[in-house]
Predict the structure.
Amino acid sequence: MATQIPHHQVSTGNEISGCRIVRSFGIVRGITVRSRSVVGNLGAALQTIVGGNISIYTELCEKAREEAYELMLQHAAAMGANGVVAMRYDANEVAQGVTEVLAYGTAVQVEHSA
């Protein structure tokens, strides 16, 4: 089993504060494909009538991003990395009501600065 990468060693920037990048492993990604159940879609349709935040879809999106993020960290750790820089999310609808969420970045090995 791969070592878990600490969340504070993941950055959307090109560096990690307090650390020096000593090796780059290349691109890593985590991908998940999600859809809402018929019951969930009905609940969301009712929420759209009222307006405001559609919490059913918000929860679905949050879970999809979290899963993609964790899969990306697992991929990076399996390569021997202990950090990820230039981390991003992307999402695409692959079919009606089915969304792909991708978390990606560059896996790196970092050392803490003295």
User: Anything to note?
Assistant: The CA atoms of residues 6 and 84 lie 10 Å apart. The beta strands are 19-35, 83-95, 98-112. The helical segments are 38-50, 55-78. The two ends are 30 Å apart (CA to CA).
